[in-house]
Amino acid sequence: MASNAHRVVVVGGGFGGLTAVKALARVDADVTLVDRHNYHLFQPLSYQVATGALSPGDIAMPLRHIFRRQQRVTVLMGDVVGFELDEHQVVLRADVPGGVLRLRYDTLVVAGGSDYAYFGHDEWRQVALEVKSLDSAIEVRGRILHAFEVAELNPDDQHSWLTFVVVGAGPTGVEMAGQIAELAEDTLHGEFRRVDPRSRRVLLVETGDKVLGAFPDPLPQRAARSLERLGVTLMLGHTVVDVQEAAVELREPDGTASRIDARTVIWAAGVEASPQARMLAEAGGAEIDRSGRLTVEPGLSLPGHGEVLALGDMVSVTDSRTGEAVILPGLAPVAMQQGRYAGRVIAARIAGRDAPKPFHYHDKGTLATIGRARGVASIRGLRFSGFPAWAIWLVVHIFYLIGFENRVVVLFRWAYSYLTRGRGSRLITAAAALPSPGESDS
Amino acid sequence: MASNAHRVVVVGGGFGGLTAVKALARVDADVTLVDRHNYHLFQPLSYQVATGALSPGDIAMPLRHIFRRQQRVTVLMGDVVGFELDEHQVVLRADVPGGVLRLRYDTLVVAGGSDYAYFGHDEWRQVALEVKSLDSAIEVRGRILHAFEVAELNPDDQHSWLTFVVVGAGPTGVEMAGQIAELAEDTLHGEFRRVDPRSRRVLLVETGDKVLGAFPDPLPQRAARSLERLGVTLMLGHTVVDVQEAAVELREPDGTASRIDARTVIWAAGVEASPQARMLAEAGGAEIDRSGRLTVEPGLSLPGHGEVLALGDMVSVTDSRTGEAVILPGLAPVAMQQGRYAGRVIAARIAGRDAPKPFHYHDKGTLATIGRARGVASIRGLRFSGFPAWAIWLVVHIFYLIGFENRVVVLFRWAYSYLTRGRGSRLITAAAALPSPGESDS
């Protein structure tokens, strides 16, 4: 390893960062990949962990295993807490003496992702659950299963425990609502003696007037019908005004207030860029939008800092023709295409070639599933729903899942649960965080 | 469900309790199974979760799923905090108003299991790790992997992070030591850039003079040789005198003191019966031994309380001929045979038949693995080691694992890791408890 080789630091092991590092495989550079976790998460399937269909290990792969053959890639576990752009340094909180580690770079790639937005109500974050990180998905799994356990213990007071509110009818919200309904209907049915799991209510609350608003007609309508058939109650045009421990308060479309007793609220609404976007903007004097997204140049660089690239759903990209900041959908394909683009930018720079043409997103389509063997897909102008959409969804997800072992296990689990309506990973583990009575001595 | 049917409460969803409930399938009784977790854990494979070979969901099955077709079985999640024998009540801490639930029984079966013993040093429990519950196995997995991550961050201070001390050379200790050695040698090797995972030290500390002391000669010697070939350092005749956060203090065979810098200490020594044994003994005026085991009658009942049965490794059983309390090995087959016996006792009682003959343990043999494709087995006087022992071990464990899906997935994972030396589930999740830098916003 040449000590004066070009040093690339990539922050974030999600789809964007991972693809960027892969794209540097044949580039003469020493690459350091930093993430707070030791694994890459296949985030589009987190909701399946949250509802017991897959195990956490099925959709997460150790980052250092992914890059074991890329000898010039070093993986370090740490949390970015600052950027020192003048010194070309990233500041990490990590398990080193003093707790802080600085990494020097020649080129920096930041792919910090996004979080859900609580629209100024950060106190809701303490109560509502999310299906974003793997840990949060494991927590949701424990909390949903725990709610049914509490209902079985308290058959006379089951109502609020068997009410599940999902906020936000984008793909994650739709998938979660469908899966919770199905979990109760197919999997848990027949396993309880004092309550009927099928008496659960799953409410999907959405401020807009349709589900999957980003999909072309008639897919939102078809998705809505599939959800209703699964037993999900759609509450379109409803806005959440408060989230409490045992209730959610809503504003109905006509402006009146209503209250729903519910112990489990899953938040899947709004997007807020990773705090790393703001840190970068402040360090580099760049702009961020209302959702905290950093505006980057057409070539993904931080304005005034060609050596810093940022990508994924923490950025909006300035269009080279119109000069306007474009917000691309927060999907894995966007991050992956940007990661690959970042790799090409760095390769060109090291080789002394011209920079590639500005980044352009090739929209290959969008997919969502709604429970067992139903889905919607919009691909190159074609629209699919029902079983064909689900089949496409399955093939795409298996294909992009990292690791042969994961692919085989996930395919087997899906086949098995398709046939039996079972779910193989219904565990309430310690990460389910609730001060549960049983964790004292384990 | 007849309201005046015989009511059986079974405490504990381990091998003993599970088998007892199964044995009651055709008996005219309403059965309530109580456990603090929502799943049965296949505990003999916990160590494989702790070393990333299997996923938690692979070896745990929801209790209510196991009994979904046994309509008269109700599963409740709760933690036993007391027995009111005169009132025929079990007292649970559970998620009910007031936090306490009392269950009435006509017959009570208590199968509370055991914990590791710290020989009066409960403060070591805070520092040392265990592979007992599923949550503890997930924590160990995170802590072992985290130690390698910290070593990679601190190549100049890797020694204590890459030293793993396993205390106790029974089956669990031997299996853990072998697996940690192999994890570093086969799986992690080549994935680190700043440290060499193979420079790890795995020390197996045992007070006795051999490993697997319960196995007949020459199996302990063969196991010792296999362990050494894997790179495990055997420290026989050594006694732990202190466990600290970054070191273990030992007394060597010649009486001198020594100190080992180690960040990861896994405790697999000694057995202490579940606190439920003491609670039962105090409630019923019975005796417990030094390890907290309750002494039960030859028919497994609590002396003076024929309606209370206790079993598994929280009891010793009085021999009907000699009158002496016999301590059976703390193995799944013992608990399962006792669970089945308890079912027969209850069935006879309800049918008005004579009680079955006193419980007798049929020793079918013992098995242990030492890493990849090596093991020792003692079966009906025959002794196996190496590959044949491992093959027997594999067949037996797949056979007894609950759930078709689990069997297929585990078999596939083992085949895959046998071929690739990979491990599919190497995640550091939140349950890994360390105040790690990365968990702040997930």
Overview of this protein structure:
The structure is a homodimer of 442-residue chains. Chain A is 30% helix and 26% strand. With 442 residues, chain A is α/β, with parallel strands linked by helices. Chain A folds into two domains: 150 residues, FAD/NAD(P)-binding domain (3-Layer(bba) Sandwich), CATH 3.50.50; 213 residues, FAD/NAD(P)-binding domain (3-Layer(bba) Sandwich), CATH 3.50.50. In chain A, strand 26 and strand 27 form a beta hairpin. In chain A, helix 1 packs parallel to helix 9. The longest helix of chain A is centred in the N-terminal third of the chain and has 20 residues. The termini of chain A are far apart. The relative contact order of chain A is 0.15. At the A-B interface, strand 5, helix 5 and helix 11 of A face strand 5, helix 5 and helix 11 of B.
